[in-house]
Amino acid sequence: MKTSADPVRDYLSAVEREGSALPADRRRELLADLAEHIEVTRAERPGVTVGEVLAELGDPRTIAATALAEAGSGGVGAPAPDGAGAAVRRGKVHPMVPLLMLTLPFLFASAFPSVPGSGFCSTLFRVIGAVLLCTSVHWTPARKATGVLLTAVLPTLAIAVWKWAVAVPVGDAPAHLANAATLVLLAGTTAWLWRVRRA
């Protein structure tokens, strides 16, 4: 970092440049926090130089990388040095877990419709799968919404309409066809979600 008449401004400019991938409001908040910290530190410790305060804060690249990791965008293009933020980028739940919870319960309920409570358990597992999908760091908000719509909302609505409007025994061909169509939708959506997930 080159020196100039205003090292604080240069430092904050470097952080802003390194954190350009941050959302604008988060970047402004970070810069305001840093400026306030510098000001407070200099006021509380009159003998400390600006250079010492900036050295204590650390490298602008490290600060920006940490902020990017905390914002959930560190894995997209700017990995944090020394693994900083790696735990933030990685989800605690493997991305396969919500996908299986959204798909397998329907398959089980379709294969064993006469098992008591299979419908309730299927719905419960799919709700948990939808929650895990929505809270995962592996997908963007738009992909999460699409995934929940196609794997939880639409199949549940279709099943409810089917049961309400049609009095067809479970073993009949139309019921099998509806189940097959729902399974194709679930399998296709989960395969798509798996393909577009963040590493």
Find the structural class using helix and strand composition: mainly alpha
Q: Give the low-pLDDT segments.
A: 73-90
- The tally of structural domains comes to 2
Q: What is the overall number of helices?
A: 10
**What percent of residues adopt helix (DSSP H or I)?**
over 70%
Order of helices and strands: HHHHHHHHHH
Mean pLDDT over the residues: 78
How far the N terminus sits from the C terminus, by CA atoms, comes to 33 Å
Strand fraction: under 5%
Molecular shape: rod-shaped
Radius of gyration, taken over Cα atoms and rounded to an integer in Å: 26 Å
Description:
- With 199 residues, this protein is an all-alpha fold.
- It has ten helices and no strands.
- The chain has two domains: 7-89, no CATH class; 96-196, no CATH class.
- Residues 73-90 have low confidence and may be disordered.
- The protein is 72% helix and 0% strand.
- Helix 7 packs antiparallel against helix 8 (118-135) and helix 8 runs antiparallel to helix 9.
